[in-house]
Write a structure and sequence with these properties.
Elements (H helix, E strand, L loop, with lengths): L18 E5 L2 E5 L18 E6 L4 E6 L7 E6 L7 H11 L1 H6 L2 E7 L3 H10 L9 E4 L4 H5 L3 E2 L4 E2 L1 E6 L5 E7 L7 H17 L16 H8 L9 H5 L13
Parallel strand pairs: 5-6, 6-7
Antiparallel strand pairs: 1-2, 3-4, 3-7, 5-10, 8-9, 10-11
């Protein structure tokens, strides 16, 4: 029996592991049984290998899930190159690239386009000037299917974003239809909250940002049961505390 209480942490649900490979037009899937849930949260992230375009170096390369083992990582699926909302999302993630790096988070964007399309997309779209991200190429949809975001009728992926902890467990996912872009500020907030929770054993209430109150279920679980309001107020939960990163330059 699996306990979904707040104090259970991010121990993964055990299941058959999935490994996928997508290289050029060759696709292999190693799966003993198709047991994929509609949610990957608290499950081991699917293994994968695929071609990619590294915009930071300007070169093609191969990426795999092994590259991210032992690290925080995010796999961000988007529908297609040369579309309209997609470059705004990629540009937003890139604008926060340094903050993700400071948090030790690696970013992999993925669409069902080829690596050649990715290269041309980055070179021609003004919003992607100075892009530092790596974009995985999933032209057969193998990796998109493994993550449960493939729209089979259109041959493209939904907007799916998966936060994976250093143990390879998906701790958060956001999947939505193509028409609306995602919020990178909210995602950064979630990353900071997840890292704090896993480091301290405390849990983070709604809207938590660094400096706001956490809930010490690791030490006060009995006293807190049914009495969370003794530890935090609605006003404190809803306070708009903004996390500011301050850089001081000495000349």
């Amino acid at each position: 029996e699996f306990n979904m209480a707040c104090d259970t942490g991010s121990k993964p649900i055990e299941e058959v592991e999935t490994a996928v490979s997508n290289e050029e037009n060759t696709n292999t899937i190693k799966k003993e049984e198709n047991n994929m849930s509609s949610s990957l949260v608290l499950r081991k992230a699917p293994e994968f290998k695929m071609d990619a375009y590294n915009a930071k170096t300007g070169h093609y390369e191969s990426v795999s899930s092994d590259d991210y083992k032992g690290k925080w990582s995010v796999v961000c699926f988007y529908p297609a190159d040369f579309t309209f909302v997609c470059p705004t999302e990629i540009a937003a993630m890139n604008a926060k690239y340094d903050e993700f790096q400071e948090l030790g988070v690696e970013i992999l964007a993925v669409s069902t386009d080829t690596k050649f399309s990715h290269k041309r997309f980055v070179e021609t779209e003004p919003l992607l000037e100075g892009l530092k991200l790596t974009i995985g190429a999933d032209p057969t949809g193998t990796v998109s299917r493994a993550f449960g975001v493939m729209i089979e009728e259109e041959g493209i992926a939904l907007r799916g974003r998966f936060l994976i902890n250093p143990e390879g467990t998906v701790v958060a996912q956001e999947v939505q239809a193509p028409m609306v872009g995602r919020n990178v500020h909210e995602f950064l907030r979630q990353v900071r909250a997840w890292q704090h929770a896993e480091k301290t054993g405390e849990v983070c209430p709604a809207g938590w940002t660094p400096g706001k109150k956490t809930l010490p279920v690791n030490t006060d679980v009995e006293q807190m049961t049914g009495r969370v309001g003794d530890y935090i107020t609605v006003e404190e939960i809803m306070s708009q505390q903004i996390y500011l990163q301050v850089t001081v330059v000495f000349k």
